[in-house]
Amino acid sequence: MKCDIKMMLKAGAGLAAVIAVAYATFPAARELITALAPALFFLICPLMMFFMMKGMHSCHKEQETTQREAPAVPLSETSNIVDERR
């Protein structure tokens, strides 16, 4: 997966809205918010990639659990099945 321009613009707009709300809500932290905002915009793509990868791993775990729950056929039974087909 890669960061396409549409997703980056949506994330940038969302981040701008969060920063604007935080700036208006917390007047005591305005200097900190102003100092961190450019760094957050610079880190949008790596942060999005991190969260996408975490999301992909959670789907992978669901598939692993369904595969593990399937009953395993012993090796001796599989060799009998192959012999019967011949």
From TrEMBL:
Positions of region (Disordered): 62-86
Domain of life: Bacteria
Keyword Ubl conjugation: no
Secreted among keywords: no
Transmembrane segments: 7-26, 32-53
Composition bias type Polar residues, residue spans: 76-86
Keywords carried by this UniProt record: Membrane, Transmembrane, Transmembrane helix
Pfam entry (one): DUF2933
Protein name: DUF2933 domain-containing protein
